[in-house]
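Dear colleague,

Following up on yesterday's call, I've attached the two folding results inline so they're easy to grep. Please treat them as preliminary; we haven't cross-checked anything against experimental data yet. The first protein's sequence and structure tokens come first.
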Amino acid sequence: GTYMRSLAHDLGQLLGCGANLKSLVRLRYGPFDLKNAVSPEQLEDAFHRGCWQNLIHPIDTVLASWPAVVVSQATEQAIKHGMPVNLPLECPVANRCRTYTEDGHFLGILRFKPEKGHWHPEKVFQRQGN
């Protein structure tokens, strides 16, 4: 991405007059758009009304472009214990993938270690009560 503040500074240096940004608003990031943003006050109000879940995205939304794999219960347990696993998944460019349990729960992020030839748990998310 372009660092807009640095770009403004560099342009100012090039022009010999100095420059900075007075204001900068990110309109979109991945699947998120400012038009759909919720203020803290709106979220707090929704919490008090008991409908806050309608305003929150699942944690894996930002990872939607990454490859995903559903793992068996045995592999799920190995991942939860931090053990490396072999998966029938080609190594993606970023060396990472999303992992899901058989019942569709987002389990975590795995990183491929090419020198070892298997996937290592990088971040694992536990369900409450598990």
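Below is the second protein, in the same order (sequence, then structure):
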Amino acid sequence: MLSGLVYKSERKEHCSKSEIDNILTTCQERNKIRRVTGVLLYSDTTFIQYLEGDFKEIISLYNKIKTDSRHTNAAILGITPIDNRIFPGWLMGSKQFDSKKIKFETDLHIGEPQT
């Protein structure tokens, strides 16, 4: 089943811009095989990633991603079946954002149990 998953995590200080470039290169190579598309948004302190693909594939990928040492406190913000991909041509797009200019409108806190 085609699904979309979004998660948020805290970027560790040692995760440099070159490390993010490595993440994106690896994603673009591996996601083609997995048939996963999406986007990685990042700031100096935060990662937000949206993945879309087969449900089992993106759950498996998320379980691997959450163990990566370049971030911590990964938490799924949402997962849902989708009819069509939002980013059909992006094996993994990216955009840096300034976390000081964005206000998150959610009651979810890192570490909350997820249902």
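For the second protein, one point worth flagging: Residues 3 and 82 are 5 Å apart (CA to CA).

Best wishes,
A.L.
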